[in-house]
């Protein structure tokens, strides 16, 4: 009989922490719920023993934006300060996302047209900083991770954002790895290197794949009901 065991990160709501009502900087009317990621030992893929806490953060119950816990203090600042912090966090997120997506695309030596379209779609989401993101893409296409450029951007994002935001970055970046329908071992190892560069346990990889699969399922459902 084979025994299958491992670890995985599971998101929990911190029930004793007050909800920050109608305070999401992104959508304005969403409330921020305090959550944490805890690693669990799994047996036959079932979580059985709680392990260490990986990160605590706030998540909007409306738009699902995730914030470092310091957002609670920032919300007490002026509107101008809040907007500046939000803009900087968005810029940091975008740079890390484009760098990771591009690096994943060129790591096999073949920058496919489908992969470039995925990256350009991501860049268009941040139109106000599009020139800067285009520079990031071109630099990574040319130099890949020279001088740890990609890892440094991810680490910068981890210092400013939450673990949830980082895993959202890597899950969105992982879309380019599925261009051929599979993630091979070298691509899996690269994703784990990203996690380590962000100061996160490499076994959170499974959590990223869960996010990626959920995204793909949601897109499939949308495709099924799209009018002709």
From TrEMBL:
Lineage of source species: Bacteria, Pseudomonadati, Bacteroidota, Flavobacteriia, Flavobacteriales
Protein name, as recorded: Zinc-ribbon 15 domain-containing protein
Species assigned in the record: Kordia algicida OT-1
Matches recorded under InterPro entries: DjlA_N (IPR007791), TerB-like (IPR029024), Zinc_ribbon_15 (IPR031493)
Domain Zinc-ribbon span(s) in chain numbering: 24-71
Domain Co-chaperone DjlA N-terminal: 95-201
One Pfam family of this chain: Zn_ribbon_15
